[in-house]
Design goal:
four-stranded mixed beta sheet, alpha+beta
Length: 155
């Protein structure tokens, strides 16, 4: 690890290339923290009995990045001991077993980072304008997150 000034940092990235767990977790390592918590969301090969071939993600990138920054600010208010936050989301095609999203958070103790990671993924799914298309063997379906606030307000 390269020594750096250890001020709290947020690392936000939307990209079409394969995500790296090592790269994301390395971003949040801090000598003053005893915990790094990770969430890795991957493409599974099935959904409700259908064979999933791949996922495809689209985003309103500038708004998505703005919403992710809001999530980071909220985490820092709720868990002031959190040091670094990394939230990387893949766009475009994501094959089965590859990561769609990686969230990493460091804190002095595990409770804060574990709670913050859970909060991040749940809030990301509810508020960030990233859309998922599941591609099956013979059809596809745009998926709506059941957590997403704008889909629930119309029901």
């Amino acid at each position: 690890m390269v020594e750096r000034e250890d001020v709290p940092k947020d690392f936000i990235k939307l990209k079409s290339e394969k995500l790296s767990v090592d790269e994301v977790s390395e971003l949040v390592i801090s000598p003053c923290c005893g915990a790094v918590s990770l969430f890795i969301g991957t493409t599974r090969n099935n959904f409700e009995g259908k064979k999933v071939i791949r996922l495809e993600y689209e985003a309103y990138a500038s708004m998505a990045e703005m919403e992710i920054k809001k999530i980071c600010r909220d985490v820092r208010q709720r868990w002031p001991s959190v040091k670094h936050i990394a939230m990387h989301h893949r766009l475009g095609v994501v094959p089965v077993t590859e990561a769609s999203v990686i969230i990493a958070i460091s804190s002095p103790h595990r409770a804060e980072s574990l709670e913050a990671v859970t909060h991040c993924i749940n809030t990301l799914k509810a508020f960030v304008p990233i859309w998922k298309k599941e591609i099956y063997e013979d059809e596809y379906s745009w998926k709506e997150n059941k957590e997403c606030f704008w889909t629930n307000s119309e029901k």
